[in-house]
Design goal:
Blueprint (H helix, E strand, L loop, with lengths): L2 E2 L5 E8 L2 E8 L7 E4 L5 E6 L5 E6 L6 E6 L6 E2 L5 E6 L5 E6 L3 E8 L5 E2 L3 E5 L4 E7 L5 E7 L8 E7 L5
Antiparallel strand pairs: 1-2, 2-3, 3-4, 5-6, 6-7, 7-8, 9-10, 10-11, 11-12, 11-13, 14-15, 15-16
Length: 171
């Protein structure tokens, strides 16, 4: 499972296929079979719904590398969010930004306007990870902090380190 729509009516999840992971959506509580959300030539994964439930982000490798995309839940055109590689997209709590991890170890923020039409702004680096092995992250409900799980090898052991970073501070 990846995410549940804000109204609690849909669950997104990944299912392995012969070509890679595919995205599915299931009504909650289940009232019928699951439906494909995103069919990909390679693999699609890591769905996150917008706070208003109308859009979702996902990571896809059809271009030859992992990139973050944005699509309307009701169907329609897909728009690239990342450029040069990206994954682990997360929505800001107000739905006005998407954060993701770039292929070159940066946390990147892209402003989003969902209404009256979808518009993505210019990507901006929040900070550089400096070789840290982030395994996942999310934003706090107030949108002011970012919490990350970081895999660091120390003396041959791999402890889980949690990092807290205030958003809005660029480093």
């Amino acid at each position: 499972p990846y995410d549940v729509t804000p109204d609690g009516k849909w669950l997104s999840y990944g299912e392995r296929s012969t070509t890679g992971e595919q995205l599915w959506i299931l009504a909650l509580p289940p009232t019928g079979p699951a439906q494909p959300l995103r069919v990909s030539r390679t693999s699609a994964f890591d769905t996150r719904f917008s706070p208003d439930g109308r859009y979702y982000t996902f990571t896809n490798g059809d271009s030859g590398r992992a990139e973050v995309y944005l699509a309307p839940l009701a169907g329609g055109s897909t728009q690239a969010v990342s450029a040069g590689g990206g994954s682990r997209a997360r929505w800001g709590s107000d739905g006005h930004e998407i954060l993701y991890l770039s292929a070159d170890s940066r946390v990147v923020s892209v402003p989003v306007r969902l209404s009256p039409t979808l518009q993505l702004g210019k990507a901006e680096t929040h900070f550089v990870l400096n070789g840290k092995g982030w395994t996942d992250f999310d934003t706090a409900p107030d949108g002011k902090r970012l919490l990350a799980a970081v895999k660091e090898v120390v003396a041959g052991e791999e402890p889980l380190t949690v990092k807290l970073h205030a958003l809005g501070t660029k480093r």
